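Need tokens for this chain, all 111 residues.
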Amino acid sequence: MDASVLTRYKAFIQEHDALDQAIPKLALVGVSTWQPPPESLVKFNFDSAFNSYSGSATTGVIGRNSQGSIMASCSFPHKNVADAFVAEAYARKQRRSQELKVNGAENKMLL
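Here are the structure tokens for all 111 residues:
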């Protein structure tokens, strides 16, 4: 191997290590892990994703039992969405709609 290539490689590694030490590490703040529901319940989680380029959003729903197995899942596309705030509002609206359906039945589900 050419000595100049080896010298440049070592300089690159030293610079990388120095930058790695100088840049503060990012910490995930407020991140929580999924907690299972009680034994006889199914827990549903809702979230939305927003695409500002197309003005569309999708709300996703997933239901898991106490072992974490997926019992149900679905997604709902939305068009002409103004921003991420509206996308989250769609998720809340969908959640409320599901709560009404669940509460009308005799199923035990945790939303």
